[in-house]
Amino acid sequence: MKNNTIALCMLGDCYYFGFGVKANCKLAIYYYNKAKKLGSSYAKSCLGEVYYLGDCVKKDYKLAFKLFNDAAKENEDDFEAQCGLGNLYLFGLGVEQNYQQAFKYYRKSAANDYAMAEFYLGEMFFHGFGIETNYDSAVKYYSKSAELENDNAMDRMGFMYEKGFGLPQNACEAMKWYKKSAENDNVSGEFELGHLYEQGLCVSQDYKVALKWYRTATAQNDEFDGRPENSIGYFYEKGIDVRQNYDSALKWYRKAADKGNSYGINNLGWMYDRGLGGVKQDYSEAAKLFTKAANLGNMVAQSNLGYFYKTGKGVHEDYFEAAKWYLKSAEQGYVPAQINVANMFANGVGVKENYKEAAKWYLKAANQGDSSASFNLGELYYFGYGLNRDYGKAAYWYRKAADKGNVRAMNNLGELYVVGYGVTRNYKEAVRLFSNAAAKGDLYAKGNLGILLFEGKGIKKNKERGFELIHFAVASGINEFKEYLIKHGLQ
Q: Where in the chain is the domain with CATH 1.25.40.10?
């Protein structure tokens, strides 16, 4: 009898995996069922996998749970059934979600050196499923799984090196692991390789190679998360290493969106917002797509939706709803949303006016290098809105913004150097700042530079040129300089 069940299970495996015969899932199920009726726990485990994955049968998680559970009880060394139970408990499929039970079964399976169980233990420690997040422990299990040739674990090792989670950040080590994963046809590994080439991490930036890996990832038609499709769409939208083609961009964004990729959904909304790729401009459809992506947690879509509610595009104008979505995006670190949240607090739009909150959000954006946020933070310190007035800190943030080319900050910092507020008075530095800002078209800077030229401060006196600049600023609507003209009999 035992030999019969082994033979039947072997036949099932041959047809399921295509060993020596053409793969035939239905025949595999037939032989597994025959072996199951004869009491084979292995056949139950195999059938559990079939119903879990939905291979040539409708997915049935409850039946999969029963089959895995029976197999695991009958054979304490059935690591595949144990891992299957772990998966069902982890995701709450066919049974109530229970992280402790998932962890227990993964540990049992991993004790038999089952690579997939090691991988999922790594996932539990990485995401903090039922246990405290611990990147070191995640790496330990990913590493064990990768050593056992699990391509998902190889991909995760690459990710841990790329981000510096539990390991020293090292793009070249990341690339090594992504390559190993890709060599095993892992779609995520292929995508991540493309991403490294696109960003120029560990290798010279190479869009052609990046696109090649993105296309390789999509060629498998895998139920992956749509990132490769979205990236290809972006390449077509921006004309990166391909001829700019909005129709092709739209096609690839749709493919990404169909796989539930939130960035693909958001980008599809962007195409409807602008009427690109052959679709008619449709704010209502764009709003629906932004909403869908925003509800999936996409920070860019949340910010876009905030803008739609603020401006009444495709939805009813609603400042409170705008503030809600901007805040969700800002909390994820999206700089444009952080600035919008700060602006709303500063102006009391959709939220109660609160300069301290505005300063908090400007600071978050400024710390990510945004020049407009640095400028606005300088303004709050200069005027003492929500913060103690501090010209030194105002000068600090104006300088941060000015160094990134913000012309308003250049002008304001120049004004501080003229009067010596928060900095040592320095007319030459003021001239430099006003000149740089004026060259970029800032009218206030032109007027201020004109005054220094007229008075010969920090620069050789040139009354004629100074008057021209001051008069130009006034004629352009900057009335602050009218008084100077009158005082000096130039009006």
A: 1-112, 369-425
Assign a CATH topology to domain 1-112: 1.25.40
> pLDDT digit string (tens) for 86-115?
999 999 999 999 999 999 999 999 999 999
Handedness of CA 138, 141, 146, 152 (dihedral sign): negative
Give me 389's structure tokens: 């007035």
Please measure the distance between the N-terminal and C-terminal CA atoms of the chain and give it in whole angstroms.
112
pLDDT of residue 285: 98
**CATH superfamily assigned to domain 369-425:** Tetratricopeptide repeat domain (1.25.40.10)
Q: What is the pTM of this model?
A: 0.85
Contacts with 433 (C-beta within 8 Å, 6 or more apart), sequence order:
402, 410, 411, 413, 414, 417, 445
Q: Concatenated DSSP letters for 432-474? A: HHHHHHHHTT-HHHHHHHHHHHHHTSSS---HHHHHHHHHHHH
Q: What is the pLDDT of residues 458-489, one digit of tens each?
A: 999 999 999 999 999 999 999 999 999 988 88
**Which sign does the torsion angle of CA 126, 131, 137, 143 carry?**
negative
